[in-house]
Write a structure and sequence with these properties.
By secondary structure, the chain is an alpha/beta fold. The protein contains six helices and twelve strands.
């Protein structure tokens, strides 16, 4: 259920993002572009239906995506950096938000904000977060959405560590996961190695 998207354009842009000298403006734009490119793979299996249309020349039958009830769900705050790229592909999509923080004593994710459409059971949710490190926050977000009635969920991340993938796939084997890269490991501070640093800080310039 884990797909690593190795398209040359994505890999090229990801390399530019990884460079420590890449400025905030360029980092944001690259993330936006990669998110948009990843959507092609994420939506590969979306069902189509045939409708009749009329071109300037003649009537014909052509395909459209059946599932238009899409909700983009960034995990705050870094997930916001991927949202615009998806909205360019699905401009009519709803946007939900999930806010989690790590309790300093228990080290467990704690929900502090969640705003979603009321009919989640009828929607396709694309959950976005640039970094899948320990997997704790992503797994907690997916559990939260399921508990609120979500039936169809996709997780889309930029860079993942093997540990994060293991946690999410063990906890949510039914949810497909799409990443642009699977990196080597986590360091002692739970940062992905080689990674690209703190995605939230690099997106918002809060170093």
């Amino acid at each position: 259920m884990v797909t690593e998207i190795k398209h040359p354009l994505i890999q090229h842009k990801l390399t530019l993002m990884r460079k420590k000298e890449t400025p905030t403006k360029d980092f944001r734009e690259l993330l936006d572009e990669i998110a948009m490119l990843m959507v092609y793979e994420v939506t590969r299996d979306f069902p189509l239906k045939e409708i009749e249309i009329e071109t300037p020349v003649a009537k014909c039958k052509s395909n459209v995506i059946v599932d238009k009830n899409i909700v983009i769900v960034p995990i705050l705050r870094a997930g916001l950096g991927m949202t615009n790229g998806l909205l360019k592909m699905f401009p009519n999509a709803s946007v939900g938000h999930i806010g989690l923080y790590r309790d300093p004593k228990t080290l467990q994710p704690v929900e502090y904000y969640c705003k979603m459409p009321s009919d989640m059971d009828k929607r396709t949710l694309i959950v976005v977060d640039p970094m899948l490190a320990t997997g704790g926050s992503s797994s907690a977000a997916l559990t939260l959405l399921k508990n609120k009635g979500a039936k169809k969920i996709i997780l889309m991340c930029l860079v993942a560590a093997p540990k994060g993938i293991e946690v999410v796939t063990n906890d949510h084997s039914d949810i497909p996961v799409y990443v642009a890269a699977i990196d080597e490991k986590l360091n002692d501070h739970a940062y992905i190695i080689p990674g690209l640093g703190d995605a939230g800080d690099r997106i918002f310039g809060t170093f």
